[in-house]
Amino acid sequence: MRRGTFRDETVDYAAVGATQAPDLMQYPPERSRPAQESWRIGSGEERFRTASDALLSWRAQRDGGLSVSDVRPAAGPMYSGVSFDAEGHPIAPSKLEADQRFDADGTPWVGSGTTIRLHGRVAGLRADAELRVIFAIEEPRRVGFALGTVGDSVVSGEESFMVDWYENDEVWFTVRAFDAPRAVLYKVLPPLITRRRKALFQRYLRAISPLYATPA
C-alpha cells in the first residue's frame, strides 16, 4: 500500500483535500461550485490494474485532449500520512522512498507533491494551469490522486480521480471537483464553470473507460 499527502502554501485555495469530504456536494468550499460523477468501467482485477496504471500515468489528462508538461516530482521522501487498519485503529505515519515510475516518453508518473502544467482548451475556453498533486493513494482495491491549482488557471480549486475495485468485482471511476472563478468571464457568467466541468468529466471518462476506446 502506498499513500502520500503533500501540503504546501503555494496552492491558491484554502480547502486543500476537500474533494474527499463526504458532504462536498452539499457544503462545498466558499464561492465554489462542486461536481461529482461516477461511472462503472468494467469488472475484475485486470480492468482495475489497467485503469489504475492509465490514471497514474496522466492518461485522463493526456487522452482527454490536454497537454501535460513540466512534470516536477517532489524532492525527498514521501510522507505517508496517517492511515487506519481494518478495525479503525490508526497506523503510525512513516516516510516512504517511493520507486519513481515513468511513462514510455520518460514522463514521471503521479506522485504526491508533483507539480505539472496543463495546456489546452475545454468547451472552447482556455484550460491552462499549474497544478500540484495534493495526495496520491495506491491500495489493493483503490487508486487515485487529487490535483490542486497553483496558478495561471481561470478557476481555483481541486479535482480528484479515483478508481475503485469493489467486493462485487465491479470497477468504478469517480471524479470529484470544486471550482471557484478567477477569470473575469467566469465571475460574470458562473454557468460557464459548470459547462467547463461537464466537458472535462466527459473527456476523463473517454480516456479511462474501455467503452470509449475507439476513435471518435
Task: Describe what this molecule looks like in 3D.
With 216 residues, this protein is an alpha+beta fold. It has one domain (2-13, 36-94, 107-212): 2-Layer Sandwich (Alpha-D-Glucose-1,6-Bisphosphate, Chain A, domain 4), CATH 3.30.530.20. The chain is built from four helices and 14 strands. A hairpin with a 2-residue loop joins β9 (121-122) and β10 (125-126).
Indicate the CATH topology. Alpha-D-Glucose-1,6-Bisphosphate, Chain A, domain 4
β-sheet strand percentage: 35-45%
Rg for CA atoms: 17 Å
- Summed up, the domain count is 1
For the biggest sheet, the summary is:
8 strands, antiparallel
Q: What is the fourth-level CATH superfamily?
A: START domain
Mean pLDDT: 82
Descriptors:
single chain, about 220 residues, alpha+beta, Alpha-D-Glucose-1,6-Bisphosphate, Chain A, domain 4, 8-stranded antiparallel β-sheet, 14 strands, globular, disordered N terminus
Q: What order do the helices and strands come in, and which of them pair?
A:
Layout: E1 2-5, E2 33-43, H1 45-56, H2 59-62, E3 67-72, E4 78-79, E5 83-84, E6 90-91, E7 95-96, E8 115-119, E9 121-122, E10 125-126, E11 129-139, E12 142-151, E13 155-165, E14 170-181, H3 184-188, H4 191-208
